[in-house]
Model the fold of this input.
Amino acid sequence: MPDPTRIDCDIHNEVPNLETLYPYLPDHWLDYCRESAFNGPDAADYPESVPTAAREGSSAKPDLAEVRSCALRDVEIGILNCAYRVQSVRNEDLAASLATAVNQWQVEHWLEKEPRLRASIVAPSHNPALAAREIERWGDHPGFVQVILPVRAEAPYGNRRYDPIYAAAVKRDLAIGIHYGGAPGHPPTPTGWPSYFIEDYTGMAQVFQSQVISLVCEGAFERFPTLRVALIEGGFTWLPSLMWRIDKEWKGLRHNTPYVRRPPSEYMRAHLRLTIQPLDAPPNPLHLAQILDQCGAEDLLLYASDYPHCHDVQEFLLDLLTADQREKICSANARAFYRL
Amino acid sequence: MSAQFDSTASVESGQKTKDQTNGHGANRPASSVQQAPRYRAPLDTAIIDTDIHIYFPTPDALRSYLDEKWQDYHRTFGQRGFDGSHYPRAMPNAARHDAWPDDGTPPGSNLPLMQRQLLDEWSIEVGVLNPLVGAGEQRNLAFGAAFARATNEWQLAEWLDPEPRLRASIIVPWEDGELSAAEIDRWGSHPGFVHALLIARTKEPLGRRKYWPMYEAACRHDLPIAIHFGGAAGVPITGSGYPNHYIEDHGGMPQTFQAQVISLIFEGVLQQFPTLKFVLIEGGFAWIPPMLWRMDSAWRKLGSEVPHVTEPPSQLFRRHFWVSTQPMEEPFRPEQFRQLLGQLDLDDRLLFATDYPHWDFDAPDRAFPVPLDKERRRKFMAENARLLYKL
Done:
């Protein structure tokens, strides 16, 4: 079977260091950064040298040349997800200026130099009003196709406090990308702080599940019927179990949330897309085929390499698909979702 | 059984919605989830109910099991836990409407009513009591220990002595490993107690070392540790803050169970205590296969951080964990439920539970959404629990 066109929905362009942003910071913050010991956001949600952070021959913070030669090989369009955690900077004004600097850097160093790339707007989402301003600043730039939010935040994303972000995104026809990570200050689990990184990493899938519940049950998709949300780097094999559970909850408890008018799984199918890496696949391909069928995955999944992170071989999934399904997952779903 | 939760009935009858919408207006749901009449299973096996809730009928009933010092304390300061995460339940006391005793005491506090509505009605052979009365969540740990001991004495005196079909849980002040170990040692050889009971939302993940003395004591007595739905730990109930609604609290509990399993496995508890057994109660189970796949995948790549974990997490899970059935996820199509059972590969580990007297009660003939073969019915409805609890 010839390889279909691929749109890669998760390539990382990390900011090498704080100095990279100096040319884009206002004088006040430039002085502040130079005079203080501030080194940039201190989120420890993905240590740079853990075995999953980079695949063989790649670096944890690839530059444009590396992305071109490795990630963009055989790829029609690549979507950059910069995970610079401005949300973990408590000073919201500094966070906002950092976000602007990151976005300016993305335009100059990535988008203007490589026409196959698209990027995600970094925004200080812990202050939704400032975040909306940042979205408005860049929303008309054709290179930006989504707003990236870390999956861990101070409140779940269905909360109405985030409405200014969604209003700004919807107005510019931008997607929201919820991505692995974040450092909001409270524990990463509902039962306190685990000891090991492997627990944070594995447990991140539960935070994605909580966000799906929140977005649906707090009515975000009723308030913003055109809102589109990509779940990036959180796995997808858990989706059928979550659909079943929340549909059942809704049958018993929907008087609690009367604005949720349809079964929760219908909102999930209509508004969510999920990237395929990490696969978190079962060892038995039959079980993976069952999962794909149970949630209607051919319309929901977005091809992604998660470059430079090191994950499972994606052919394990792609080989289960028909030519039509491969085409959808490898490019057509992303083309429609990101308006490419 | 008219007042019990019936998913078919509640989807199709929108009539109650209007009074309860706080002015949002009632919108009848789309018809896409309307179902055929719900499948009813034959009641041709023994039934062991692994999740029954009992409560003190009055504060004085609890105090009568406390010594004088703690009686005064309880009268003066009451029960002080980790507040700030209360989601008003859908129903008063989260109970079935028909489970309120005539005298106005809480559901689950009246033995004759429970015998009639549950044990006799459904011919339950053995029922396991899981009292969720708050002893483990007291910030005053010494009071929590006294409260736990009182709860254990109360279970024996007022439930197990008069009703031989019942078994009890050892209630422990779980945030203190040593006090919990002492309570397990106090009751561990009594045949009426079948496990020690914890709650899902503990202050720290249950793999942390502060909890280990409790596990050591459980191993001494070959008693399983049960982890039940619920709790308030003083931290947000998701990894991303506090949601707004009870449906998110109730529907989000599987995320807490996943966090606890991840912790127990990756922090090395099962390697340290190779005979320890865990029972996950009221967490559902469809989340288990994808969680195990993710854990195995993470362990293959990141296992160097946890060298004490010497075999795949899925293998450890299937050896050390049992899971109760209620509330079980309901797939869109019947064959998907069978696919789920195949992915789970836990036919010897599922334990039937009703959750009496709570609103989401599972009746023995309607718990499973699809027909199961007789062998699976026997195992799930009673035989797995009989082996685990040595009944």
In short: Chain A has a mean pLDDT of 95.
